Amino acid sequence: MSVAHPHPPTPPAPPDRHLPASPAFPDGEDALEALLATPSPGLVADLADLDGDLVILGAGGKMGPSLARLARRALDAAGRADLAVHAVSRWTDRAAADRLAADGVTPVPFDLLDGDPAALPDAGNVVFMVGAKFGSAGDPAHAWAVNSALPDRVARRYRGARVSAFSTGNVYPLVTTASAGSAEGDPVGPVGEYAMSCLGRERVFGHHSAAHGLRLAVIRLNYAVDLRYGVLADIASAVHSGHPVDVTTGHLNAVWQGYANEVALRALRHATAPEPFVLNLTGPETASVRRLTQLFADAFDTPAETVGAESGTALLSDASLCHALFGYPDVPLRTLVSWQAEWIRRGHPLSGKPTKFQVRDGRF
Predict the structure, then answer these.
(1) Which of 147, 148, 170, 146 is nearest to 359 (CA)?
(2) Alpha carbon distance 15, 13 (integer Å)
(3) Which end of the chain is least crowded, N or C, by CB within 10 Å?
(4) Given the DSSP bridges, would you call strands 106-109 and 85-89 parallel, antiparallel or unpaired?
(5) Cα–Cα distance between 277 and 246 in angstroms, integer?
(6) DSSP H helical segments within 87-241, as ranges?
């Protein structure tokens, strides 16, 4: 039995692109970081004619350091060592900033909420990764300040740049699991303060695109998998520790983080104004949580325990446009499942930060 069934009608891979073989299992954090920082030929080609330096805002989060390294390696491979990669964050973890600096990335300590945006580095290209999700139900004012107000400051500072702004699939409503998921042109329907404030982020950036010509790409992501965290780590950890998995939210999308980072960078070339370029970013499958639970149970030679019954709806996105533009992820879901089980079996570290993908009322 397969792990998932593909979204109908996911298009075939472009005829001039062969599906790459999956890389070898990254055995430990150093190997994982090296793999995440390895650019594809497509990314190298797209960044070869980048028009100006790159600033990554919110680079200290889960995805930021690997995206910064990936951008640096791709630019170097493209012969663009003349372009800087600035990684902006508060950098409370100084060691993480030092590791990036050793890899040729320029860490920029900066508080985006309170600092003067004029002090930020000049750049022709911006990846916006800042977001507040967990705790948003208890402190919605902070979530709105980060997710909706901050984009206005950033858009004014980088009005002449191309901006690739991370958003979330949570801006869509829950849809029937029999569907192909929400497509970019479907009506939005955010549930909860987090999702509503993320739609606010899109609208504020969109205002600057329409009113001031900000070239914008909006990336609606769900859910990136890095082995240290993500929906697969959540499910696998529960199974491995003998805890039941709640299958009420019975289906999900997931995608390899390396692919997600690449798409966010390559989307800079597609940034447009006055209408932003909007792109769903996830894998091509609708994965069954119950089936994933069983696969991990088989891998760990332990019983599969579940609670609840599958709802007929879930947060699902149709990313067929993304796959048509950039090809399919080079690490498919079934490989990610195998890697995740092996990562936990070998005792490699986990972030301890659950995705809370099971949440259905928008309260994170």
Answers:
(1) 170
(2) 6
(3) N
(4) parallel
(5) 36
(6) 94-102, 140-144, 150-157, 192-212, 231-240
Helix (H, G, I), strand (E, B) or coil at 105: coil
Calpha distance 194→135 (Å, rounded): 9
| SS3 call for 358 | coil
What secondary structure letter does DSSP report for 188?
P
Put residue 192 in one of left, alpha, beta given phi > 0 → left and psi -120 to 50 → alpha.
Answer: left
Could you list the beta-strand ranges (E) of the chain.
4-6, 54-57, 85-89, 106-109, 125-128, 162-168, 175-176, 215-221, 224-225, 245-246, 251-252, 255-256, 277-281, 285-288, 306-307, 313-314
Question: Of 284, 263, 240, which is closest to residue 232 (Cα–Cα)?
Answer: 240
Which amino acid makes up residue 174?
Answer: L
Of the candidates 357, 358, 320, 313, the one whose C-alpha atom is nearest the C-alpha of residue 177 is: 313
State the CB neighbour count (10 A cutoff) for residue 262.
26
Q: What is the DSSP letter of 7?
A: P
Q: What pLDDT score was predicted for residue 300?
A: 98
Instruction: Determine the Cα–Cα distance for residues 156 and 175; give it in Å rounded to an integer.
Output: 35
Please state at what angle helix 231-240 crosses helix 333-345, rounded to 10 degrees: 40
The per-residue pLDDT for 4 is 45
Q: Which residues contact 44 (CB under 8 A, 6 or more apart)?
A: 74, 77, 78
Cα angle for residues 13, 17, 19 (degrees, 5° grid) = 70
Which pLDDT belongs to residue 20?
56
Which residue stretches of the chain have pLDDT < 50?
1-18
β 4-6/285-288 pair status: antiparallel
Residue type, 94: R
Name the CATH superfamily housing domain 27-226+254-283+315-330: NAD(P)-binding Rossmann-like Domain (3.40.50.720)
Neighbouring residues of 41: CB distance < 8 A, sequence distance ≥ 6:
none
